[in-house]
Write a structure and sequence with these properties.
It is a single chain. The protein is of the alpha/beta class and 329 residues long. The chain folds into 2 domains: 3-70 and 99-207, 3-Layer(aba) Sandwich (Rossmann fold), CATH 3.40.50.300; 217-316, Orthogonal Bundle (Helicase, Ruva Protein, domain 3). Helix content is 46%, strand content 15%. It contains 15 helices and 11 strands. The strands form 4 sheets. A 5-stranded parallel β-sheet has the order 2-5-8-1-9. Strand 6 and strand 7 (132-135) form a beta hairpin. Helix 2 crosses helix 12 (254-270), helix 10 (221-233) crosses helix 12 (254-270) and helix 12 (254-270) crosses helix 13. The radius of gyration is 21 Å and the shape is globular. The chain starts with a helix and ends in a 13-residue tail after the last helix.
């Protein structure tokens, strides 16, 4: 069985627990395959937490859920020094961040001080506490959920932390047919039956092996230039259409281009191709950009949103036409 087949089987197993949400399941797998952090946004009750927990159960990896609340302290996340009364010395007790898959549940309900505690872990894969720097696991991934900011008791994430998330997936309510299936599964106790089926058939080593394969995906010069043009357009919208001058107040950083490369490579790899196409890039672009750009007040007055700006950029930037045999323009 090929490595790609293992991850296709993983998605099938996830679908036995999560009804619908195809994009969510694929993005979760892509984040894991690239080592990128994932931000899931949507109202309560859309199985965000269940999806991440189910993914961790399918992999022989350590998992910890952190429930973010307004009274959470940084030490509750990274750990702290505890006085040993017998020896009189301080002993560092690791916090829940020292796991391979960390679910930061309702991340935007915690105050900025706690958000900052996560930043070093997400950026450097290490934490500093008690004057010492400690490495996190090689497979370390943060999968965070957040409720829409319009809800009470939420704090907007700092821009620096948002930029550390590779993907920002916005979830919508299920269709009527999907919700009907959820009802039927609940009535037949389907979720309880599937827990026996969802055995851990993948390992962290398998994931790291797949990451190595993805890093070797072929990306033509034309596709590289296309990715740079797409993210660059967020900083120079008026050069593509003068009527869009001032619509964005914040454009995407170069980290967005790197994330786009990694995510598109993983998507191509999952489809058992050894090269990246413009379609892979277009498919991943909205989730790469929507949390990295910000529409200005003037832009919102013109009814622009982050997603509509991304759609416009896709429309404006010419798509390279590649020869499928040689992968050249």
């Amino acid at each position: 069985m090929s490595t790609q087949a293992d991850f296709k089987e993983l998605k099938q197993h996830l679908q036995k627990v999560i009804v619908g949400q195809e994009s969510l399941l694929e993005r979760m797998i892509i984040a894991m395959l690239t080592g990128g952090h994932l931000l899931l946004e949507g109202p309560p009750g859309l199985a965000k937490t269940t999806a991440v927990k189910t993914l961790s159960e399918a992999i022989k990896s350590s998992f910890q859920r952190i429930q973010f609340t307004p009274d959470l302290m940084p030490g509750d996340v990274v750990g702290s020094d505890i006085l040993d009364t017998q020896t009189g010395q301080l002993t560092f007790v690791k916090g829940p961040i020292f796991n391979e898959i960390v679910l930061a549940d309702e991340i935007n309900r915690a105050p900025p001080k706690v958000q900052s505690a996560l930043l070093e872990a997400m950026a450097e894969q290490q934490v500093t506490a008690g004057g010492l720097t400690r490495e996190l696991p090689e497979l370390f991934i943060v999968m965070a959920t957040q409720n829409p900011l319009e809800q009470s008791g939420t704090y907007p994430l700092p821009e620096a932390q948002l930029d550390r998330f590779m993907l920002h997936v916005v979830l919508d309510y299920p269709t009527e047919s999907e919700e009907l299936e959820i009802l039927r599964r609940d009535r037949s106790h389907h979720f309880g039956e599937d827990k026996e089926v969802l055995h851990a058939f993948l390992t962290p080593q398998k994931v790291l092996q797949a990451r190595h394969q993805i890093s070797e995906q072929y990306v033509s010069e034309a596709v590289e230039q296309y990715m740079v043009a797409l993210t660059g357009a967020t900083r120079r919208l008026e050069q593509w259409d003068e009527r869009l001058a001032g619509v964005l107040e914040i454009g995407a950083s170069p980290r967005a281009t790197l994330s786009l490369l990694h995510a598109a490579s993983a998507k191509a790899w999952l489809e058992e191709r050894d090269f990246v196409t413009p379609d892979d890039v277009i498919a991943m672009l909205p989730d790469i950009l929507r949390h990295r750009i910000r529409v200005s007040f003037a832009g919102r007055a013109q009814q622009w949103t982050e997603d509509s700006v991304i759609d416009k950029i896709i429309e404006l930037v010419p798509v390279p036409v590649l020869d499928t045999d040689t992968q050249t323009v």
